[in-house]
Backbone:
């Protein structure tokens, strides 16, 4: 039997509708709206297109959006100055800094400079540390979206074997931490893993995040496993994931497509985190 397709677009749409209604209610009652600021340097086409899509989603949800475009050769002190302004600005609930930054800019220094309360993509070391410690924090968007998709299908995660393929700081590692918090037994694979097929075949839940198209084939997947594919690559002009979808869907119980799986969840989680940061910033009046 073919797997149930986890429709990230539909799930995202529902979450964004909830956010939109919350924004409207706060605006009507308190005359306050959340605001998201995106800072980028230069005109990297992929970054411009990503930020444009966020701008549109914010507009649809009623969230104010502030696009801070700097020159491609902006200096570190210029960027730090902008972030300082955004940190102080009460209309800005959340800040994202789009990579890549100009040559010579110390990304670590930049990540340290964002107020943790406004760090809506878990970029700052303080928030990364809190994530590690399992403390309450604005979670990184893609890992949060992946876990939300798993929650949506309503399966028991406690005691399940999760294999995360990929160990980057932005996807693989945080997903592994979050699945540990959900009481899974977690294995993290990477390019030096000796027998990827064996590791993946052991998994009740597979999360692929490598950017290597076709890395996970159908024969690597255990019958009935849940397969979440975060990978995005372009092959012959088409977007594909890390998983051979047509094969895997005949074996898995649930599977995400690419596109339309994890991708839409990432931007939706960014809006949700902006809302959360806004609520935290106004918790005194909101709780009344
Ligand atoms: P990175 O390139 O930073 O990390 C890739 C990881 O995959 C590394 O840990 C690497 O191992 C591992 N890897 C590479 N080849 C293999 C292999 N043959 N076997 C096992 N592991 C391997 O990528 P990101 O984490 O930033 O992104 C991963 C994918 O997710 C990309 O396709 C990216 O586009 C996508 N992505 C999607 C998002 C979304 O919103 N849908 C958001 C962010 C990313 P090693 O550490 O040993 O090098």
Residues:
């Amino acid at each position: 039997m073919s797997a149930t397709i986890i429709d990230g677009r539909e799930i995202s749409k529902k979450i964004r509708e909830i956010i939109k209604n919350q924004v409207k209610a706060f605006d009507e009652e308190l005359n306050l709206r959340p605001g998201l600021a995106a800072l980028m340097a230069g005109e990297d086409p992929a970054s411009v297109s990503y930020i444009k899509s966020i701008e549109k989603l914010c507009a649809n949800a009623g969230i104010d959006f502030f696009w801070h475009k700097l020159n491609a050769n902006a200096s570190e002190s210029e960027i730090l100055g902008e972030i300082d302004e955004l940190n102080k600005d009460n209309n800005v609930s959340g800040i994202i800094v789009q990579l890549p930054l100009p040559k010579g800019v110390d990304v670590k220094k930049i990540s340290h400079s964002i107020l943790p309360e406004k760090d809506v993509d878990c970029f700052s070391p303080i928030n990364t540390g809190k994530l590690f410690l399992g403390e309450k924090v604005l979670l990184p968007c893609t890992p949060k979206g992946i876990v939300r998709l798993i929650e949506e299908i309503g399966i028991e995660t406690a005691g399940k074997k999760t294999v995360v393929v990929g160990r980057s700081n932005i996807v693989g590692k945080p997903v592994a931490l979050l699945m540990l918090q959900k009481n899974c037994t977690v294995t993290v694979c990477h390019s030096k893993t000796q027998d990827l097929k064996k590791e993946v075949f052991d998994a009740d839940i597979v999360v692929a995040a490598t950017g290597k198209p076709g890395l996970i084939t159908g024969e690597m997947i255990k019958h009935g496993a849940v397969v979440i594919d975060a990978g995005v690559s372009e092959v012959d002009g088409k977007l594909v994931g890390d998983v051979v979808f047509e094969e895997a869907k005949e074996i898995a119980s649930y599977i995400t497509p690419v596109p339309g799986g994890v991708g839409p969840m990432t931007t939706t989680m960014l809006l949700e985190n902006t809302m959360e940061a806004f609520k935290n910033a106004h918790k005194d009046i909101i709780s009344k």
User: Anything to note?
Assistant: The radius of gyration is 19 Å. Residues 142, 165-168, 170-172, 189-193, 196, 209-212, 215, 230-233, 262-263, 266 surround NDP (CB under 6 Å). The domain at 141-263 is CATH 3.40.50.720 (Rossmann fold).
